[in-house]
Specification:
2 copies of one chain form a homodimer. The first copy, chain A, is of the alpha+beta class. Chain A is 39% helix and 23% strand. At the A-B interface, helix 8 of A face helix 8 of B.
């Protein structure tokens, strides 16, 4: 084990004594809302509801194997079983190599988050696998120390190291994710979100392609003001500042045309008192924030109805913005 | 007087009894660092040191007159005496019209902030005039209520309504300035700035022109992360976050080539422990932030030396980041 992890290891020594006995662990990771509109590739929050589960077993062979990928979400059986091509597999490969572990891992994934939904499905597999693997290490790491391996895993599916999904899954709630670290932000307990996932397919590649043309300074300045208002509103628990800030002028105008029904869904949320509404991750899921659970619960059916009017079934989740973090199960 | 100001007026009624007697008042407004690197047209902070002074007299004639503009800064005598073409004059015209005042104002300006320095000289004249005029009103307004008139004035000189200079002058310290309101931010008391003004001329028009070409998404995302780190660092009083955040990737790379010596000045600041350094407003002044007054004081001569090596005399100011606000004098 490299010296870089010695302090995390020693501070977790009592936990590690128990973990040393453990050969297998399961962990879940929640879904998440990436970007939160104004924080492209920077901000995200975890949500209650859909989750992926990973089961990791320590094996003698010095390798990472994926034994099975299950789940009743469409496309789960098409995910690559080759570890280096799978986000969760790659995260465990990176963990093994960095720590210089003598043993390997065998991994099983139970997908509960729909693929290509914009809810961080690949990130959740990656984080669930890391949290489960961490539980079978002789000297478990801190969540902060797991971050780099989660970014390694995410880069397999997205091609870039952005932590706006894995960071909130690792820490819970709203997290600012830079290329090197996670900064959890305070979240008022009255903040609730509605997340609606329609039965649409939106390829991430297409959702990224529309962002390629550069952005005018005036737009960037307005978006910066929105981000600043949003962060200040979050920190002060000020719904008025959040309402002013939670307006995405940069990415949403380019991606919204790719999501049939989006404009009506957003309008339904705002009509029901949403502080703001936008696209979750690369879409097609949409989210809206509310100043109470009751408002969120009342808005959810209206948002679903708007998708239905556009011809799409959907699932809706009502969740605290301060959603859960990934945890070992049982 | 319009209904919009009735609450501000009634809450200030005891002050207004005294003010009703007053026919003339003088006020100063401090210089400021616009943009603070990562908050283009959004963030600014006031500084101790250079300041403009305005003297306003209530007159019977229903008009705004500029009686004199004085000052030992180069170019002060070339500023327009026609009220509608002068930032301070235009601010008072807007104030008169909005409040429906029966009387007029006569204005004298004493310029202490060099023109075209990037230290908010035109904004300071405007704010000093408003604060002085407010002191001779029968029913003085709040600082928040003065903001719109300050933006009206600023637009005469810059052509756009941006409040990153007038807002910190009105409230003091670091202020987030949107098109409609000012949001003061908390500032750790150990934060100090060095502001160095070289004897160079940089036309604002030229400084704006280099910003015209649009910006790549990857750059915008990095800059957003820096802004978020900066705001979080300020709010938490975390020097490490400020150091990570106070890096301008958007505007500085385009403007720096217009300021001979800039790279060396910035390097000198960073060599002396600066948390970050960039261009003040549209330049050519430069600023750097430090975690103590002692560090700032030690860095100032080195920053001046770097300008001297490039062939430019300069003035340096060491100031708390939580600088003063405009006030009535005497």
């Amino acid at each position: 084990m490299s010296a870089a992890f010695s302090s995390a290891s020693s501070s977790a020594s009592s936990a590690s004594d128990a973990a040393a006995q453990r050969r297998q662990a399961s962990a879940f990771a929640p879904a998440s809302v990436g970007n939160i509109g104004v924080g492209f590739d920077l901000l995200g929050h975890s949500i209650e509801g859909p989750r992926d589960v990973a089961t990791v077993r320590r094996i003698e062979a010095p390798e990472v194997r994926i034994r099975a990928i299950r789940g009743d979400v469409p496309g789960a059986d098409s995910l690559p079983l080759e570890a280096a091509r799978n986000t969760a597999g790659q995260a465990l490969i990176a963990l093994r190599e960095k720590l210089g572990l003598g043993h390997g891992f065998e991994l099983e994934l139970d997908k509960g988050i729909p693929l290509g939904s914009g809810l961080g499905g690949s990130a959740a597999s990656c984080v669930a696998a890391l949290v489960a693997a961490n539980a079978v290490l002789a000297q478990p790491l801190s969540r902060d120390a797991l971050y780099e391996f989660a970014l390694d895993g995410e880069s397999v599916s997205s091609g870039s190291r952005h932590g706006d999904n894995v960071a909130p899954m690792l820490l819970g709630g709203v997290v600012m994710a830079t290329s090197t670290r996670m900064i959890p932000l305070s979240v008022p307990d009255w903040l609730y979100a509605v997340v609606v996932h329609p039965d649409q397919v939106l390829e991430t590649r297409r959702a990224r392609a529309v962002l390629a043309d550069p952005y005018a300074l005036a737009l960037v300045v307005k978006q910066s003001a929105h981000l600043a208002l949003f962060l200040t509103g979050l920190q002060r628990g000020d719904a008025g500042l959040l309402r002013e800030g939670l307006v995405d002028l940069l990415v949403e105008p380019r991606r919204a045309p790719l999501i049939p029904g989006f404009a009506a869904v957003k309008a339904a949320a705002l009509d029901h008192g949403a502080l703001g509404a936008s696209i979750s991750g690369a879409g097609p899921s949409c989210f809206a924030w509310f100043a109470s659970r009751a408002e969120a619960a009342a808005a959810a059916p209206a948002m679903q109805q708007a998708f239905a009017d556009a011809g799409f079934d959907s699932r809706a989740y009502v969740t605290p913005v301060a959603g859960p973090r990934a945890e070992v199960i049982g």
